[in-house]
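Q&A log
Question type: sequence-to-structure
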Amino acid sequence: MALLDAFRRRDQNTRTAWGYTFQLTPDHLTPEQSHPLKHSYDRLGEECLDRLNDLEPPALHKTNSPKRDLYTLLERHHTVDPKLQELWDQVHTIPDWVNWNQISRGQEVFYRYGGATLTGLAYQSLLGGMGANRVVETLTRTGGFSTKVARHRLFETTQHILECTRSLESIKPGGAGFASSIRVRLLHAAVRQRILKLTKTRPEYYSVDKWGVPINDLDCIATIGTFSATIIWLSLPRQGIFLRQREIEDYIALWRLVAWYTGTPTVFFESPRRARVTMESLLLYEINPTETSKVLAGNIIRCLESQPPAYASRSFLEVSARWLNGNELCDALGLGRPSIYYWALMAGQCLFFMSICYVYRSFDYLDKRKIAALRRIFWFVIVEGRHGLGEESVFDFKYVPDYHVKTDPADPNESGLKEHGVERRNLKALLVGITVLGTVTTFSLWASVQVCKRFID
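Response status: OK
Response body:
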């Protein structure tokens, strides 16, 4: 990416944010335009949460109580309360811009580039997203990113993504992806409500003036953007993978629908162009790592270190983050600087992903077979497998903000499992790539020499 940037046109509108260079246009959000979005939020979702709490009060202190499924409560009670019915009608009313064939194709995009997409989600969307200084102030108050629970929290986020892409029926009203999106919407309302309630009695606990309302519209726009635009224009290209134009349109359309379900303003995803300038605006103005960012980023590295299914070392996790986010941002997040050996392994991984993705997408039969296989594999590894969640999450309110709850830095003495995994595969891919390149180069030189000899003779 840095090599390509060297050939870009530069003028007074050229901006570089954390290693990404683009042209600033009137379409980009300014800080003044984005400021109101820090204080607006999904009021309907919060009002419905209040109604559900009145109808079936949460058992916050009953450790043996069953998990509270907010979607099930909404489904059970929406006919008895006007506000609940309003939300129910809203999410079941599909906007005119939804084309189900396009949504289905957008779901396939996720699995067509599956390994590279998951890598981007883990190390750029989530880990790199810890550079958003306002967002981390909410995350740290939930305790959901301490080393003991961060891996589970990451897998829950991935489960939501998998549910939204598992099948077309899953993302339609009544499907698993639809239901989990509503659960996430109501969970956000619960976290926001809890933090604001604590702030009323202790104003120093959280500064609304400084950081905005917790989980506000701008935060939700940024979240949808990191799952869509960031993958398309940052994560995949930095791994050598470039989507075709229709794939870009389809993938943005999918996440625009998820935004609709979760109560996120959808206008910022009405077109690929709008989604991209929104991503660039947030990258320019919203990424500003703090000490809290360092703690959360370090905890993510620690919770994944030497853990199944990848069994990646700390150095490889750090080089993955650096490859995708750049050294400037990762230095600001306090990540280590791995040796050249790990950079070579990451290059091998990119060669592996590029080979698989470009070959399989070139043949319709192979493409469909791969998409079907990865749908099964990802679901088993992340949700059903013994090294994953073990069961489907209902996104219950278990990371409850409180005055005594905070996210502490990782214990440097903690160590993960010691197994060979993704690094050995990447080394093999690198060696194969070097061998193939060397063979092609040698053959090309030999052929050139033979041609020259014929002309000379």
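Response note: The mean pLDDT is 89.
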